[in-house]
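Ticket #4471: structure export looks truncated?
Reporter: QA, pipeline team
Priority: medium

Steps to reproduce: submit the single chain below to the structure queue and open the exported record.
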Amino acid sequence: MHMKLARWVFLVAGVYGVIALLPMYFQEASVALTQPPAITHAEYYYGFIGVALAWQVLFFQLSRDPLRFRPMMIPATLEKLSFGVAALVLYAQHRLPPLMLLAGCIDLFFAALFVLAYWRTRGLSNLP
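Actual output as written to the record:
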């Protein structure tokens, strides 16, 4: 049961991430219109998308074999916390729109699920 939870948590996180991130490759111009000012350093924008998509690959790996890759649940949690906490702080400073706060809260929710998956898989053996 604990393995199943971990598998589902990371699979859902990976699928959600790909669905949320992949379209951003084609939205630079619309981001400039809907959330001015325009992006002045495209390398940061596209670099963020690429790095974030790379993390989704890790989530898919974790979903396939949570015990083997269990130590990677710690940096995976930090990845989710890094945006979630930043979103809360930026929103509190009136520097982030509510829709982006929602995205940050989703990441915080996944961070909590990652911690739960890590905790629930402790003591389990990957041996047959």
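Status: closed, not a bug. The export was complete when the record was re-opened. Leaving a note from the reviewer for reference: The mean pLDDT is 94.
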